[in-house]
Amino acid sequence: MAGSQLALIKNLCLCYCDNKPDILDKTVNTVSHLLHSEHGNIYQDDIRLLDKIWKHFQKYGRNQEMLRFGQIYARLNKLKVLKVRLETLQFLYALADTASTEHHHDSINRPMPTSSASSFDIPSFSLLSLQQGSSNAKENGTSHNSSHIKSSTSLQKLLQYTNGDEHSLSTTNNHYSTMNNTTTNNNNNNNEIENLSSIKRDNDESRILRELLFGMQGIETPRLSSNDTSIDRCTRSIINRFLECGWLYEKIRKIINTPTTSLVAQAFIANLSSELREYHRLISVIEQQTNVSGMVSLKKLHVWMCTPIQRLKCLAAVADTCHGRKGGQLLSILYMHSQHGDPLQQSILYPLLYNCTIPIRDMIVEWICNGIINDPYQEFFVSTDKMVSEEKLWYDKYTLRVPMIPSFLSMEQAKKIWITGKSINFLRVVCKDRTMLQIIKTPASSQSLFQQQRSTEFQDMIISVYNETTRYLRSILDDKYQMMDHFKAIKRYLLLGQGDFIKYLMDLMETELNKPANQVFYHNLQSLMDAAIRVTNAQYETEDIIKRLDLRLMYVSPSELGWDVCCLDYKFDGPLRTIFTEENSLRYMRIFNHLWRVKRMEYTTCGVWKQLMKSSRQFASIPEISDMTHTCFTMSNEMTKFVQSVNYYIMFEVLECSWSDLLNKLMEAKDLEQILEAHDDSLLKILTRLHLDGHETSQDLAKQLRCIFDLILNFGTIIQRLIQSVDNELLSRKSYEQQQNHGTYTKNNTETDAEVRRFHTVFKPQLKTIKSELHIVKKAFRDAVLKFLQQLKSHPDITLRSLSFRLNFNEFYKVSYTSKTTA
């Protein structure tokens, strides 16, 4: 069985290999492998595929081989050994048209066609001429059966081969000779009747065809549009299908005639016009063929117009969807329609998409190479505002139109294109750098924009231009404008990183800052700051940084001191104003004020501790205040511990960690946009962890912390009053003792009574008042700290929650509060 199967395969392949042994062996091996595999096919049954094969033989005039193929196929089908008969025939049919296969291979590597020439295929009239030749031969008395076999007859013949026996070829010739004789006799009997009916049908069909050609061009045809009873239902359905072409044509024509203000839309309309010209060409060819008798009929025209109708439907649907759109929106719609499994729709949409992409491709190349937007109709996805100043060039002058981004471009690619053009303009306008970067030698093709899965040409162009432009801009910012040095200067001075300078500055300014805010003057503080720079390590800074360091006095409110209105400032100009904007300067000012207040609390608690230690001997000489002295030392240590914990949290866990993250991001940043994002993220993180971000929870924390700081300041004032009272009491007692030592040894009752009266009327009431105030401040401080801890525990930021544990790691405030509540 296997040997007979191989012999049949060889005989079958001979029809396609033209008796060439080198091609025959290769084809037989391929077919043998195909017989044992499973492949999907595009044909639903044997009839359609056999019809294709039969037309192929007729196209090349291989009539003898056509009959031989029918015999071999019938024998092969009868053996029932071919399991994948349909797939085998499909494969052999594909091998037959070698020239068309090579043409298809070339079209893959060829650039995308820019026009749709021959988009509406002109039907082949070779079969019709062949039929006319056969009729002429019949009139001359000659018969050539093998030269005018129709497609339907060929299929019937193949089916006869399938159901016949091995001698079907010999009996078939006899059958056809008998059938021809019978047909000739019948034609002689009914010749006149058939001629009359044929002439009438031909006249009616010719008239319908002439009117249909007008209707297919959108021209109204009253007779075809009305309900003509002389036209049967079958013909009417065919006519309606042809009239659909006219409706689609008119719909597309109206869209073409609509005025447009868009380069992409103009390209789209130009392609639609080209499609309609090809459609006119098809109509004109068909109209020319209608002049030849018997060349065109309704049924033949129906077959020829199947593909053009589908093409018109596709064009009308796309044109209707794209009507009124422009720029990237129109390209997105075309790209969406092109992502279709139908090869016909792909062949229609790809040329349209290719031509419509050219204006956007040119805009992209002009933007990323020269920083110029040539967009008269506002269809590019990057827009410009000429009214924006240089300082806001990076932020507001060039914006990204997200709806105008074509869907075949990713958001990352669009942002890189946007940033590249902005970087060029930033270099020219803000940095005053006119260096021309020669990056692109050959721009990417328009096809590479929407076929990035096949080609990386466009992606490579964007990456190369982006890397070169941003690298040059980064080098300008680092080398010419010393961007990193200014970041470090802000860390040292505005964020209080230069400890010796800050400490010495507070010592010098203490007297001035303790004054009311309306009595503090800028020139006095400026001279003190200059003195602090000359004495501390700040003197080793570059001259540019020292000139930028300045003081600012904020708005003065009633009952405020100089501590509340004094603020360090750092001046920026040129490209640095883009990084350190006015908004960022205000953020730094808020951060500095908070750090300055914490430093003041630390300075105050340290001062209170020094005063207490200095006055400890005086306190020991007055036994009446021993309990009060213990309370003062306890509260001083408690407040110092709280302030130091808060200061450690701010300086190390907030500022140092944020600064380290910022440095890493700045080193990794490739473009200015990434630098700005890293800077903004760092500032927002600092503001959040310092509860200065304006959130409701943060505002409650800031108010509570400010309340605690006010209590610390009140405690320092009470300690000063206590020390003053103790000093006055010691002076009075010393004066009394000196009088006693210089007088007589007899006891003066009058002086003694006066001293006792002074103690009970002056010093003792002062002690009582101070003691009550200390008790109030102590209770208020612990209650405020406990509330602050409870607020920290419910904060979403983990670093603030960890601060609550550090401030109360031994649960001191919880125990003390519980004991007081129980008491």
UniProtKB/TrEMBL annotation:
Gamma tubulin complex component protein N-terminal domain residues are: 209-479
Where does it live in the cell? Cytoplasm, Cytoskeleton
Q: Which Gene3D superfamilies match?
A: Gamma-tubulin complex, C-terminal domain (1.20.120.1900)
Principal subcellular localisation of the protein: cytoplasm
One family from Pfam that matches here is GCP_C_terminal
Q: Which InterPro entries match?
A: GCP, GCP_C, GCP_C_sf, GCP_N
Composition skew (Low complexity), residue ranges = 142-152
- Example GO BP: cytoplasmic microtubule organization
Any one GO CC term of the record? gamma-tubulin complex
Keywords in alphabetical order: Cytoplasm, Cytoskeleton, Microtubule
Tell me the ranges covered by the Gamma tubulin complex component C-terminal domain, including all copies: 484-813
Q: Spell out the molecular function terms from Gene Ontology.
A: gamma-tubulin binding; microtubule minus-end binding
Q: Where is this region: Disordered?
A: 131-152
Give the UniProt family note.
Answer: Belongs to the TUBGCP family.
Q: What is this protein called?
A: Gamma-tubulin complex component
Q: Which organism is it from?
A: Adineta steineri
